[in-house]
Amino acid sequence: MKSRSAWMRYAALGIVALVMLYPLIWLVGATFKTNAEIFTEVGFWPRSFDFDAYAKGWKTSTEYTFATYFLNSFAIVIPRIAVTVVSCVLVAYAFARFEFWGKKWLFGVMVATMMLPLIVLRLPQYLMFREFGWLDTYWPLVLPSAFATDTFFVFMLVQFLRGIPRDMEEAAMIDGCNALQMLWHIIVPLLKPAIISVIVFQFIWTMNDFMGPLIYLSSVEKYPVSLALKMSIGATEEVAWANVIAISVVALLPSVAVFFMAQRHFIDGAASSGIKG
Amino acid sequence: MAQLSLSRIEKVYPNGFKAVHGVDLQVRDGEFMVFVGPSGCAKSTLLRMIAGLESITGGELRIGERVVNELTPKQRGIAMVFQNYALYPHMKVYDNLAFGLKLAGTPKAEVDQRVRHAAQLLEMEHLLDRYPKQLSGGQAQRVAVGRAIVKKPEVFLFDEPLSNLDAKLRASMRVRLTELLRPARHRRLRHS
Predict the structure, then answer these.
(1) Nearest-angstrom CA–CA distance, A94 and A116
(2) Are residues A44 and A67 in the same domain?
């Protein structure tokens, strides 16, 4: 009886999962199809398996291959993640553990900036970076994150830290930690699951960011994957959709890989602290 | 070891609530002192004030000859065992014990010697390679005591050290603690 209900549950979940995943499955199938097939068939199974689209898509119509664009993407993503983690952890630590003048008000302001539509920042930021002479460089894409401007992450880390009991920090204080040693030896290890979430989100969001690179980058050799993908949909000639889709599939892989690598750390939360009884 | 003296120690919280009303107390070198009282009578607060985790708003606290009101916990030469042990979950037992010594810049060989000595005293040498989550309540308690012992503090502070143990363990731990700390001075706090 029990196994039967379990079977039913798995079947229902499986069907829902299939419906949710179908566009993705179709996407992979479409990379083996011709334009005519793509627009006429709803099924995902292609008539033949030919990896030509991947090879052609990878080469692009420019003088660079997608290898360049991937490297460019990583050249933005990796430094950005590094500065995000450092700045957000520092700010969250201050908000969660220290008393200072105007703390509540400042926290309110910070949370309020989350409601701000990003678009209102575009113009002033663009003008500022133009004055700095940083157009067509990666600085405008990386530097703002070094000042904990990704307030969502700060908020998330603060909430996580508030859930961690202070006893361990008090023990560390008695052991002789100063504020920075405490952060490094005690807080950061306890925050690990939250920090990994920050890394994953920032990776995926930055990989997918289209607007930022579009505004600030003008030389093709500096384009990240998101822009290069758009570029491969040419304006004049007929688009070979299989090539574009093939590269979209490849472009998805890093994000998916990062997500699965980090998955088991999400689960390992603050619950595994040394408290018993 | 040192003498601990409190004179007219007060605690007033920023909201005006007065928790500790001028406590005078002398604890002689090597003396074993227990605070007993109903829940909420500021036993823990007083202990935390001695430890330096809570600020002192009035009076004078001396450890040995020094006035320590404004000193950090580290400078006071105290060690404290917390009710829920507060072991560092990401460090092995060995590192839990060694952490304070390493921070103080103690030479590696001495750290090792002191950690192993404490582990031997508490009969937990076999636990040194484990993480806190792999310990039973009684074992975690011993690690917490060990962490206090390795520091060779002037004053041992225990905040309800036995309340998380079952009755049998509590009885045996009580005996063991008395034996262990006989030459030392410390104050302990409990509800029972």
Answers:
(1) 23
(2) no
